[in-house]
Write a structure and sequence with these properties.
seven-stranded mixed sheet, mainly beta, globular, about 50% strand
Length: about 110
């Protein structure tokens, strides 16, 4: 199993970013995919999750209405569209899948700052 994130960077408050996660090594469409984040000095937290067929999506309260998770089962990709970013969203964002075990990507840094 391999998960590779991309799309992080520096953005001003109020801006947007789209994170991508390329998955391989498992039957992608069969598994829930999640995005987590970890800010400095804080525990890793669940940001959003989407079921295999994409029919159910869940979000942390802190990102509801601003972030949107989606997936493309033909391309084995999962995305996180992040709008109205604020400095509290600054963190390393990780793609996660629980297949036979827990698998994490390497993470992508998102920094929201003016």
């Amino acid at each position: 199993v391999q998960l590779v994130e991309s799309g992080g960077g520096l953005v001003q408050p109020g801006g947007s970013l789209r994170l991508s996660c390329a998955a391989s090594g498992f039957t992608f469409r069969s598994y829930t995919m999640s995005w987590y984040r970890q800010a400095p000095g804080k525990e890793r937290e669940l940001v959003a999750a989407i079921t295999g067929a994409g029919g159910v999506r869940n979000y942390a309260d802190s990102v509801k209405g601003r972030f949107s998770i989606s997936r493309d089962n033909e391309k084995n990709m999962v995305y996180l569209q992040m709008n109205s970013l604020n400095p509290e969203d600054t963190a390393v964002y990780y793609c996660y899948a629980r297949v036979s075990a827990s698998y994490w990507g390497q993470g992508t840094q998102v920094t929201v700052s003016s």
